[in-house]
Structure formats: structure tokens, C-alpha cells
From TrEMBL:
This is Multifunctional fusion protein. In the N-terminal section; belongs to the TrpC family. In the C-terminal section; belongs to the TrpF family. It catalyses: 1-(2-carboxyphenylamino)-1-deoxy-D-ribulose 5-phosphate + H(+) = (1S,2R)-1-C-(indol-3-yl)glycerol 3-phosphate + CO2 + H2O; N-(5-phospho-beta-D-ribosyl)anthranilate = 1-(2-carboxyphenylamino)-1-deoxy-D-ribulose 5-phosphate. Residues 3-253 form the Indole-3-glycerol phosphate synthase domain. It comes from the Bacteria. Its EC number is 4.1.1.48, 5.3.1.24. Pathway: Amino-acid biosynthesis; L-tryptophan biosynthesis; L-tryptophan from chorismate: step 4/5; Amino-acid biosynthesis; L-tryptophan biosynthesis; L-tryptophan from chorismate: step 3/5. GO terms for biological process: L-tryptophan biosynthetic process. It comes from Ktedonosporobacter rubrisoli. SUPFAM superfamilies: Ribulose-phoshate binding barrel. One of its GO terms (molecular function) is phosphoribosylanthranilate isomerase activity.
Length: 478
């Protein structure tokens, strides 16, 4: 097994390092270092998804990636193009890394530098600092609780932050309990190398708001990065897709733009597997299901289950398409019922489209999208009253039918609101007007139902046209 092999090899190397350079000598070198740069601050000072760009020549899962890269030149390119921190592989046998790369990179850049290695002994923490590292990686899977706490403590005394990596809910809980302030969620299972890009979605809600969350592995496209923005991570750690790129600045731009400047798109009122597939193929980010009986878009919860099961793309884990998240739309229903449906269907977000109060929103066990009616004016105090209770605010046109009428509202009002909160703009959007809406309002996301229908039925061509208009607008917003 890879992990066992690498840890065994690491321990052999470690004994040799200890013989060559006793801890006291290493500690003397540590004392000569300038203070460590603050990784936590670098990842949390701006409200955006930051990029930790990684320097690695090979990996056990992918073999040779970029054996001839110049590590310092690459790190400088990363810094010049907006990386908030640099991660450097120092493991020599499986990743072709080296301590010399780290020391040379540290001298060449001004951002924090992370030692990415398989750290199992406090000697390696001192080693990292002596080489110039500002932060280290600690992997929950190879450390017990006592070791994790001890290594965190040693790093703290040396002024370094730790990126504590989890691969499961249990490991995330261990990282939290150990007091880790920067928690990485690695989509790649270190034992099987299998990818689960949706692990971050499952783990994010477990991690307290005062911790910095880093999504790691398998981040290749703008859609991958846009998906991470939905989980409110503070950083993405990217190696492979950068080191193999022929255009590193272009790849970095695409990822940073995907995470921070693109528009999330929700298609609402879905009822069939075919339309679910169309949405996925077209790159929709959120799929909405209406659980409000008077609506012609109403769908019974069990029918949603069946439609998702029959969708070709939703069930294809190896699909090239990033899978959207599922939103259940409810109007003034009981909290217990909403929570039950959410659990049963595996909904990711709950949209509350009635008169639900902030206190009610807090009874919902999923992040809440709270719809607020925005007519010729908007009650900003009302909007702010949901600040702690709702994950996002949806602005819709006032109507007695609650929503889904295909009527627009005043986008100047919406623009003001979008400066105060992360807004999902709804109400009368369609393939023809969505570009203007996005450019004018600059919302976090857009939401459409009527505008992608013909004769009250979803229309695949209109769904594609809507999505294309949104993505084209993202490109010109760069
Ligand atoms: O679509 C419905 O029937 C509906 C019923 C009850 C609450 C909300 C509903 N739809 C929401 O309305 C907007 C879309 O509006 P439009 O049709 O594009 O004008 C969206 O938020 C839906 O979730």
C-alpha cells in the first residue's frame, strides 16, 4: 500500500537525517531563521478563494508530471500571477522533491512557503523551519491524536502554521478537536488514490467558521473552482493542473476567475431526468426542485429521487461534468418536514420562499437560501436580519404565487442589495436578458425557471442558451 510504503521510507530517511544532523544542530539553524510568514493570514485576509500553488515534479498516483521544471522559476511565476502561498514537495523518492527546492523558493518569493511532506516526527518540523518553511502539512491518516497534537504544538512554538489534512468526516473531526486552524480536505484518497471531488461538500459544514478551509486535489477547470466557491473555502491547493500546463499564468487566471468571478447558475423547477441531464451538460451549478403543491412545477419528493436515479449524468461519477448541487424549494412548510425531505433526497441547500423568519431558517439542517421579495424597493434591514440565518439571499419579484412567475423586478434595487449580501438573482430572467442582469447587478448567482420553459414545460434549447449566456458573460467580466 502506497501510504505504508511512503511512511516506511520516510522513517528510514529520517533516521539517516538524524544521524547526519543531530536535533541540537538543527535547532541552532532554526534559531538563525527570520520569523515564519503567516499562512493563515495569507489565506484569510481577502474574502475570496485563494490559490496555494504547488511545485511538484512527480506523484505516485500520476507518475512523472513535470520532471524538468525549474522549481524556483515556477514558484516565481506562481507568485507573480496571484498565488497566496507556495506548496513545495520535499519528499524525494515518490514526488522527486527536495529540501533544496524549498530553501531556494523561500529565498525567491515573498509569500508563505509550505513544506508538503509526510511528517511523522518532531525532527521533521524543526527540519522544515531550518530549511525556511513557513508552514507544514500534517496528514491525519498517518498520525494518531497524540502525535497530531504534539506536532501542532511543536510547529506553533516555531511560529509555523499547519495545514492539517483530512480525508473523511472522522479525520476532519480529529483535526478540529486537535485545534487545527487550517484544515485541508483532500479529494484524493491516499490509500486507493480514488478521487471524491464532493468530499469537500460533505465536510465543509462540519468545520467551524473560525478555521481556514483548503480544498485539495483534482482542481483542473474553471467549473471545478466555481464549485469550490459554493462551499465557502478560503483556498484551493493546486499542483498537477499547474505543473503540466503549457500556460501556467493562463491556467492560474482561469482557476482564480472560476472561483472568484464567475456567476453561479441555478435552473429551477426540474421534473425529468432528461432536463436534469441537459442542465448538467450545460454546466448548471444548482438544480432546483419545487415542493410547493400549487405550482405547476411541483414534484413529489419520491419523484425527485426517481428522476435523479434515471439521469445518466447525475449518476456518472467519472463524468467530465462537475455535478451540480441540489436545492429543495419550500413555501411555509414545517421545519421537521423540510429536514426530513432534505435528508431523504440528499438535498444540499434549502430555499425558503415564503415568510419564514430568521429563527425558522435556523431550524433547517442545511444551508438556507432565503427568498426576499424585491419590488420597487427593498427592505435592507429585512435582508440584513437574515445575515446569520441564511447562507444566501434570493431576490425575487413580489407576487401572490410566491415565485416562478417570469416577471422581472428593479435591477437597480438588486444591485444595491448585491453590494450588501451575496445575492441569487431571480425573477423573469431568460437567455436574452441574463447577460444584462449579471453585468448590471453583479450577483453571486442567477436563478431561472419560466425563462427556460415553453408552454410551461422545461425547454432544453432554452436551458442551453441560458447557460451559454451566463458563461459568456463570465468571460467578458474577467
Ligand atoms: O417556480 C415556482 O413555481 C415557484 C413556486 C413557489 C416558490 C418559488 C417558485 N419558483 C422560484 O421562482 C424563481 C424563478 O422565477 P422565474 O420563473 O424565473 O421568474 C426561482 O427562485 C424559483 O425557485
Amino acid at each position: 500500500m502506497f501510504l505504508e510504503r511512503i511512511v516506511t521510507q520516510t522513517r528510514i530517511d529520517l533516521e539517516q537525517h538524524k544521524r547526519e544532523q543531530p536535533l541540537e544542530e538543527l535547532q541552532r539553524r532554526v534559531s538563525e531563521q527570520t520569523p515564519a510568514r503567516d499562512l493563515r493570514q495569507a489565506l484569510s485576509s481577502r474574502p475570496q478563494v485563494n490559490l496555494i500553488a504547488e511545485v511538484k515534479r512527480a506523484s505516485p498516483s500520476k507518475g512523472m508530471l513535470a520532471p524538468h521544471i525549474d522549481p524556483v522559476e515556477l514558484a516565481c511565476t506562481y507568485e507573480q500571477n496571484g498565488a497566496a502561498a507556495i506548496s513545495v514537495l520535499t519528499e524525494p523518492h515518490f514526488f522527486l522533491g527536495s529540501s533544496e527546492f524549498l530553501t531556494a523558493i523561500k529565498a525567491a518569493v515573498n509569500v508563505p512557503v509550505l513544506r508538503k511532506d509526510f511528517i511523522v516526527d518532531e525532527y521533521q518540523v524543526y527540519e522544515a523551519r531550518a530549511w525556511g518553511a513557513d508552514a507544514i502539512l500534517l496528514i491525519c491518516a498517518i498520525l494518531d491524536d497524540a502525535q497530531l497534537s504534539h506536532l501542532l504544538q511543536v510547529a506553533r512554538t516555531l511560529g509555523m502554521h499547519c495545514l492539517v489534512e483530512a480525508h473523511s468526516k472522522e479525520e476532519a473531526q480529529r483535526a478540529i478537536s486537535a485545534g487545527a486552524m487550517i484544515i485541508g480536505v483532500n479529494s484524493r484518497d491516499l490509500v486507493s488514490f480514488k478521487m471524491n471531488p464532493y468530499l469537500i461538500r460533505d465536510l465543509r459544514s462540519l468545520i467551524p467558521a473560525d478555521r481556514v478551509v483548503v480544498a485539495e486535489s483534482g482542481i483542473h477547470t474553471a467549473a471545478d473552482a466555481r464549485r469550490l466557491a459554493r462551499y465557502d473555502v478560503q483556498a484551493m491547493l493546486v499542483g498537477e493542473s499547474l505543473v503540466v500546463s503549457n500556460d501556467v499564468p493562463g491556467q492560474m487566471r482561469m482557476l482564480l476567475q472560476g472561483a472568484n468571478k464567475s456567476t453561479q447558475a441555478k435552473i429551477c423547477g426540474l421534473r425529468t431526468p432528461e432536463h436534469i441531464d441537459t442542465c448538467i451538460e450545460a454546466g448548471a451549478d444548482l438544480l432546483g426542485f419545487i415542493f410547493h403543491e400549487p405550482s405547476h412545477r411541483y414534484i413529489e419528493p419520491r419523484q425527485v429521487k426517481a428522476a435523479l436515479k434515471d439521469s445518466k449524468l447525475y449518476n456518472n461519477g467519472a463524468s467530465e461534468h462537475a455535478l451540480p448541487d441540489l436545492v429543495g424549494v419550500f413555501v411555509n412548510k414545517e421545519a421537521a418536514y423540510i429536514n426530513e425531505v432534505a435528508e431523504e433526497l440528499g438535498l444540499h441547500y434549502i430555499q425558503l420562499h415564503g415568510t419564514e423568519s430568521p429563527a425558522f431558517c435556523q431550524q433547517i439542517k442545511r444551508p438556507v437560501i432565503k427568498a426576499i421579495q424585491a419590488g420597487s424597493q427593498i427592505d435592507l434591514d429585512l435582508l440584513l436580519s437574515y445575515r446569520d440565518a441564511a447562507w444566501r439571499i434570493l431576490l425575487d419579484t413580489p407576487t401572490s404565487e410566491w415565485g416562478g412567475t417570469g416577471v422581472t423586478h428593479d435591477w437597480n434595487i438588486a444591485r444595491t442589495a448585491a453590494q450588501t449580501a451575496q445575492i441569487l438573482l431571480a425573477g423573469g430572467l431568460n437567455p436574452e436578458n441574463v447577460r444584462e442582469a449579471v453585468l448590471h447587478v453583479k450577483p453571486w448567482g442567477v436563478d431561472v425557471s419560466s425563462g427556460v420553459e415553453t408552454n410551461k414545460q422545461k425547454d432544453s434549447q432554452k436551458i442551453r442558451a441560458f447557460m451559454q449566456a451566463v458563461r459568456n458573460t463570465d468571460t467578458i467580466q474577467e
